[in-house]
Amino acid sequence: MAKQKTNNGNTGPQTSAASLGFEAELFKAADKLRGNMEPSDYKHVALGLIFLKYISDAFEAKHKALLAEDPQAAEDKDEYLADNVFWVPKDARWSHLKANAKRPEIGTLIDGAMRAIEKDNESLKGVLPKDYARPALNKVMLGELIDLISGIALNEAGHASRDILGRVYEYFLGQFAGSEGKRGGEFYTPRSVVRVLVEMLEPYSGRVYDPCCGSGGMFVQSEKFVLEHGGRIGDIAIYGQESNYTTWRLAKMNLAVRGIDADIRWNNEGSFHKDELRDLRFDHILANPPFNISDWGGDRLREDPRWQFGVPPVGNANYAWLQHIYWHLAPNGTAGVVLANGSMSSNQSGEGEIRKAMVEADAVDCMVALPGQLFYSTQIPACLWFLARDKSNGKRGKETLRDRRGEVLFIDARNLGQLVDRTRRELSDADIQKIADTYHAWRGEKEAGKYEDIPGFCKGATLEEIRKHGHVLTPGRYVGAEAAEDDGEPFEEKMKRLSAHWREQQQEAARLDAAIEANLRELGYGG
What is the CA radius of gyration of the chain? Predict the structure, then answer.
């Protein structure tokens, strides 16, 4: 994967082949080919082919290099595996599919290619889509889609080509999530929200975990963060779990396209009932659990040791997610969790008592209120919970953070972000930086500068203040109103001036009333 610096969050890479408009134009063209097909079905068709192009390009680049060095090694699968490159059999290579794109049996050829790749690559077993031959799928459209995807990264070689394909895959994921609306949001967390979590938690190294990982966006952004700050792929070890099999497949492909090695588990029981990684503890946890889930099977887990702050209500999984995540934190671990706003203030079914116990135990480090309309799947306003195992001397690399026990940082970011279309808002690079810098300064990071409360935006509150608010964690309760701009005019003088102006206006109003009355009398309408 290319180690070029990305333009902080822009969707497109900074290369000659792909400006910001490149992916957008490509998606527009691909979407046009979709015809009447549902976005939820077409997503797998398009993403499967982009994945096939990616692994074929990576294989061809490695194959060419090995042929130049040692022709015998070019046919040794282990040579590819050692470089994190998938082995692609001859009839599964993109060049073969491209050459046969106009044949009516192209669907059967693609399915055969997918099966051959799965057979030769253990980690892809059961991951790739294999229903391109189905009668309902237009084969002319398939051929045109292959031609379109063939043009991706045409002028780039090796890592640069694969990096562009990775970005295209990610862009398409986001666009499909938008097309699918509520269903799309179940597998995709908006990029700007993920970036807030990543920029605040700074996952430079160690184990990173997501217990409901969707299509793997948290991991992709974490790896990008590491690369942008001079690290290497491999500085973080990635673990995840997903209960939706189709979404798990998307995650496996998404990470493979980025060249990211990860341990992503699937079972249909989910993280609560079959915690695949129960004995592992993690340095960084990033999660966007489904909001307010009522049918999570909590009645079967009343005695679970994860509920150290209180048994979560059967009718809402929010506090089960928070406690599951806290349970999995390493001694110096930190977590960022996206939840519905109600989680900050609800007192239903004992949630208020659990929240109180978490605050009193110093498990909560920071709360961020987000602007509305950020998500594809819901209009429910959301917030971010940041949890920390040890606020006394938390580590950041080799740096020791300040003792934050008995304090919580509140950030009210509801006024940030810009509308990108009629229904959806995004946080800009500057917005994300503002939120992250505030948290870093408050934590005592040396290069982050001195922290100061900003009325209307942020406040470092003490435990005593939080108790006065009944352990409600809504930032708006703490940050106060935005300070009015000081125009330099003393209050007494301003009041005198405004009072005189008001009296003048009253006199003018009385004069106008009298003039109107006189005019009405002249016209014979007077009293």
Answer: 28
The three-state secondary structure class of 338 is strand
Helices and strands counted in the chain (H then E)? 18, 13
Q: Kindly tell me the sign of the dihedral angle through the C-alpha atoms of 266, 228, 453, 449.
A: positive
Q: Is the pTM of this model over 0.90?
A: no
User: φ, ψ for residue 331 (rounded to 5)?
Assistant: -50, -35
What fold, for 20-180?
Ferritin (1.20.1260)
- Rounded distance between C-alpha atoms, residue 442 and residue 24, angstroms: 38
SS3 (DSSP) at 337: strand
CA dist 192 and 413 (Å) reads 13
Six-digit token string for 261: 């090695």
Tokens of 150: 């063939």
Which class for 171: exposed (0-12), middle (13-18), buried (19 or more C-beta within 10 A)?
A: buried
pLDDT value of position 20:
44
Query: How does pLDDT run across 299-355, given as a tens digit for each residue?
Result: 999 999 999 999 999 999 999 999 999 999 999 999 999 999 999 999 999 999 999
Pairing of strands 407-412, 364-369: parallel
Burial class (CB in 10 A: 0-12, 13-18, 19+), 476: middle
Q: For residues 15 and 525, what is the distance between their CA atoms, to the nearest angstrom?
A: 78
Pairing of strands 236-242, 262-266: parallel
DSSP state of 154: T
Round to whole Å and give the CA distance between 9 and 234.
Answer: 22
CA–CA distance, 451 with 439 (Å, rounded to integer): 8
Domain map (residue ranges) of the chain = 20-180, 190-400, 490-527
Among the four given CATH numbers 2.40.50.140, 3.40.50.720, 3.40.50.150, 3.40.50.2300, the one describing domain 190-400? 3.40.50.150
Q: What is the pLDDT of residues 445-475, one digit of tens each?
A: 988 999 999 999 999 999 999 999 999 999 9
Q: How far apart are CA 306 and CA 274, in angstroms?
A: 13
Assess whether pLDDT exceeds 80 at residue 22. no
150: Cβ contacts below 8 Å, ≥ 6 apart: 53, 94, 98
Task: Give me the helices (H) in 209-368, please.
Answer: 217-228, 245-257, 270-273, 318-327, 351-360
Q: How far apart are CA 385 and CA 401, in angstroms?
A: 19
Q: Which amino acid is at 121?
A: N
| Size of the chain in residues | 527
Q: Report residue 292 as tokens.
A: 């307010």
Pairwise CA distance, residues 280 & 270, whole Å: 16
Per the structure block, which two tokens stand in for 377? 């799947």
Q: What's the rounded Cα separation, in Å, for the pair 253 and 238?
A: 15
